[in-house]
Each structure stands twice: as C-alpha cells, then as structure tokens.
Amino acid sequence: MTHPPERTGFTVWFTGLSGSGKSTLAEMLYHELQARGMKVELLDGDVVRQNLSKGLGFSKEDRDTNIRRIGFVADLLTRNGVATITCAISPYREVRDECRQLIGRFVEVYVYATVEEIAEHRDPKGLYKKALAGEITGFTGVDDPYEPPEQPEIWVDTMTQEPIESLQTILDRLRDLGYIDDATTLVEGPKVHSGMTDLRLTESGHVAEGR
Amino acid sequence: MTHPPERTGFTVWFTGLSGSGKSTLAEMLYHELQARGMKVELLDGDVVRQNLSKGLGFSKEDRDTNIRRIGFVADLLTRNGVATITCAISPYREVRDECRQLIGRFVEVYVYATVEEIAEHRDPKGLYKKALAGEITGFTGVDDPYEPPEQPEIWVDTMTQEPIESLQTILDRLRDLGYIDDATTLVEGPKVHSGMTDLRLTESGHVAEGR
After folding, report:
1. CA–CA separation, A139 vs A143, rounded Å?
2. How far apart are CA A109 and CA A103, in angstroms?
3. If 0-12 CB within 10 Å is exposed, 13-18 middle and 19+ buried, where does residue B155 land?
4. A129, A143, A182, B128: least surrounded by Cβ within 10 Å?
5. Which pLDDT value is given to residue A46?
6. List of domains in chain A
C-alpha cells in the first residue's frame, strides 16, 4: 500500500497595510494549497490576537510580541510538514526577519497598496479616514510605522493586479522555489470561507468580493 | 516508492502538581514516540509561558488564559498529525475539559504525588517549604487550588512507581486506545534532553535523574 508523500512544511508570510489584500490572498492561497492535498493552516492576525494575544495593545513592543507568537506557532507547524500561511500586518522588519531566521523555510509576500488607494476605495469601516483626520491614533501607515520588506520573495501590487493575478504571481513563485509542483490555479469561482479570517461572507457562506 | 503511513495526531495532556513528575514522564514519552517514527512536539508549561504568555501572572484568569493558549496550539498540531505532549500544571478542571472538547483526540494523564511527598523529597529549590511556611503565596496545592481530574484516561502514582513503571502504564494505555501499535519501551538508558523542558541536564547533555 502506498501513501501520499510526506510534504515538507513552509511558511508563506503575508505582510502589508490593513486593507492591502492580505486576507483575501491568504484565503485564496489556502484553498489552492488544500486542493493540492497539502496540510494547510492559516494564522490570521486578528484570530491569533484573539487566541494568543488578548490583552496586548498596539505599541511597538506589543505588536512585536504578537508577531513573535505567530512566528513561534508557524515554526511548530512548519517543522511538522504544514504549509502555514500568516496574514498579520507585521509592520516591523526586524521581528519579521527574526521569524524568518526561526522558521527557515520562509516566503515573505509583500502585499502593496498605498494608504491613499485604500482610504479611497477599500475603507468600508472608515478607519483610514478617521486616522487621516487624527480621530484615531497608532494606525499603521498613517501615524504608526510600516516598514516594507527590502527583499521579499514575492511582491504583489493589488492596485494594478486583480486578486487572481496576484494569486498567480504567488503560485508561480512557490513553484519556482520548489514548494509546490504545479502553479495552475485549481479552485474556480467564489471560495467557501475557511473560517480562519475575518473576511466578509455572502449569505451562502462564500467569501464576499472585496473587503 | 512507498512512504510511512500518515499518522493521526493526538494530545497527551499531563496534569499534576509542580514536582509531581510531569516533565520527567513527558520527556520519556517524547523519546518513546520519536523512536516510533512519529512526529512529536512537547509543549512545556514554562516554555510556553515564555513564548506565548509572557506578562501573564498566576491568578485563576491568567492561568486559564495560559492553558487555553496551550490548548489552541496543541489543537493546531494534533489536527495536523502531530503527537503532542503538554506538561503544564493546568490546575483547573473546567479549562482542561475545554481543551479536551477542542482537541478531541485527548489523553489526560494525572500525575499524582502529594504535597507532603514533594515537599519532603523533591523540592530542590525549597519552593514548597517556602509556600508551606507562608513565605510565598499563590502556590498550587498549598494555598492555590489544584482540581484533580475526575476521569483521566491515565493515572500514575509517582510515589509508588518508578518513572519507567509510570511510562509503561502510559504506553500500555496509549496502545489500548489505538494511538500506538506497540507498548514496548524502545529507548534505553539516560535520554538526551529534548531541549523542550526545564529539566536539569548532566554535563554530557543527558537528562539528570530526579529533579
């Protein structure tokens, strides 16, 4: 009797501003990797905050602690053969690089969109507008730092690319890096929600378009 | 080409007083499961506190939060095929049962030794003596509650059993529950430390006898 080959784990680490499209792409990638029969976990920033970091705030120290915890769990999963996807803002370069060192098999995906673009087109809760007006403070990209990666394995521009194009960029690169065999998208149409991010759902339980 | 069968994960959850022998047995079990070619992780109470719960104290609420975090991570590992061992005091029954519900494939091991026995024979740092003298407070089993499991899958008495006998009890039961095929101890002599608990080491890097 044969069994499917034991997969080697890796971590795909999304980083970018709130609203840049991290969760959308992470969800799409989650389903693509699952469709390949891989073990996949998705560690969403907000979900991890709820489960591992309740009580932490948004100071640099607390943000770093939160990211270190995600890195600790991602490492445990990765070394046990799980394709692990993280999507937290993770604004500070140093602690991202610390996670890279810890995990080893680490693919950093910089999800790029400008504050102006997000505030104008992707701000349903009006948080960017409030932050830009000074009504809320400590908002990443507005009055709190975001340090973009200097040499990410993958860079996607969600202002010029459709999500499916960004996904293809990611799959192509994962194939080139040897983490997947085939970069063809396998999942068609609206995806059923993984339950692992806070993306909006349609009434049928599918992921809503946009945020 | 054949591959080893994909294992189903489970969690072995040690609970008991500080000094009861949880870490010693967890270390021994870790090596036994590894020797069977299984994927194994050991989540030690103190190590997890360092990585996931820095800043938490020892109130009931903080202890429960710490245990919930161990449960969250144990669940992630278990559902990905990892034999997961936890060894935190985990004094409260309700939150242990919450973890049991979450994880499903859950084997609770109650490591039994009385405060008197530990204070007399296994208290190298003198913590029990200080707690009994009222010099430190909030100490589990002395002036802070320990709620023993009512129906643990496994019960070991480390006052009457040698560690190797307790280990055999655990392996026999894991075999009976279908989590391992063979309960024969495979690892002989002093074990090399996993690095995952705070057990003392000999100069050669082996686990020291006793605590």
Report:
1. 6
2. 15
3. middle
4. A182
5. 84
6. 10-176 (3.40.50.300)
Q: Chain A interface, mutation test: which of B50, B73, B194, most A Cβ atoms within 10 Å? A: B73
Note whether A44 and A88 are within 8 A (CB): yes
End-to-end CA distance of chain B: 46
The answer to whether the beta carbons of residues A126 and A171 sit under 8 Å apart is no
Which residue type does A27 have? E
Contact A81 B80 (CB under 8 A): yes
Beta-bridge partners for B85 = B12, B42
Q: How big is the CA angle at A7 (ends A3 and A11), to the nearest 5 degrees?
A: 155
Indicate the pLDDT class of residue B54, thresholds 50, 70 and 90. Answer: confident
Please say if A90 is a catalytic residue.
yes
Helix axes A60-78 and A45-52, enclosed angle (nearest 10): 100
The predicted pLDDT at position A55 comes to 85
Query: Which carries the bigger pLDDT value, residue B193 or residue B135?
Result: B135
Distances (CA, A) of B99 to A51, B11, B12, B148: 13, 10, 11, 15
State residue B47's pLDDT score. Answer: 86
> Distance between CA A164 and CA A169 in Å, rounded?
9
Which residues lie closer than 8 Å to A61 by C-beta, 6 or more apart?
A: none
Q: What share of chain A is helix, strand, coil (3-state, %, to 5)?
A: 35, 15, 45
Quick check: B57 and B137 in contact, CB under 8 A? no
What number of helices (H) and strands (E) belong to chain B? Answer: 7, 5
| Residue A122, pLDDT score | 92
Confidence (pTM): 0.89
Q: Please provide residue B4's backbone torsions phi and psi, each rounded to the nearest 5 degrees.
A: -65, 145
Sequence-ordered alpha helix ranges (H) in chain B:
22-35, 45-52, 60-78, 93-103, 115-121, 127-132, 163-176
Q: How far apart are CA B30 and CA B41, in angstroms?
A: 8
Between B119 and A192, residue with greater pLDDT: B119
- Contact residues, chain B to chain A, C-beta under 8 Å: 1-6, 39, 41, 51-52, 54-55, 65, 68-69, 72-73, 76-77, 80-82
Q: What is the mean pLDDT of each run of 10 residues along chain A (211 residues)?
A: 64 97 96 96 90 89 94 97 97 98 98 96 92 95 96 97 96 97 85 65 53 39
The edge-to-edge listing of strands for the beta sheet with A154-157 is: A40-44, A83-87, A10-15, A106-112, A154-157
User: By the 8 A CB rule, do B63 and B138 touch?
Assistant: no
